[in-house]
Amino acid sequence: MKHKMRLNPEPFEMMKSGRKTIELRLFDEKRRKISLYDCIEFTCTEPPYEKLCTDVIGLYRFDSFKELYVNLPLLKCGYTEETVSTAKPEDMDAYYSVEKQEKYGVLGIEIEAV
After folding, report:
1. Is the peptide bond before 48 cis (omega within 30 degrees of 0)?
2. Residue 52, phi then psi, degrees to nearest 5
3. Which domains does the chain show, CATH number per domain?
4. Closest-CA residue to 64 (of 24, 21, 94)
5. What pLDDT, in 10s, does the model give residues 23-56?
6. Predicted model pTM
């Protein structure tokens, strides 16, 4: 199955270069449809709206970003050597409300570019 997701420029470039291999999302209705070996087409949210096709090679389901941050390697989740020491689950509050995180849970989607 093919899925489509949008990414801001910085995480898009990190994913394109292979520095980010785990995408963090809510485990909402849309993400519940993702299975191993599915294809995800990421589109950059800013011009030139570049696309990146990836295969799902791992799915990691957690109740909260707090649990996810303890169990997944944050350097694969978009943090760098410079930012990983200050990484905290609350960083994800900028993207997803606490209420939605509690309602749906969260998902780490491990991908590889094709």
Report:
1. yes
2. -135, 120
3. 2-113 (2.30.130.30)
4. 24
5. 999 999 999 999 999 999 999 999 999 999 999 9
6. 0.96
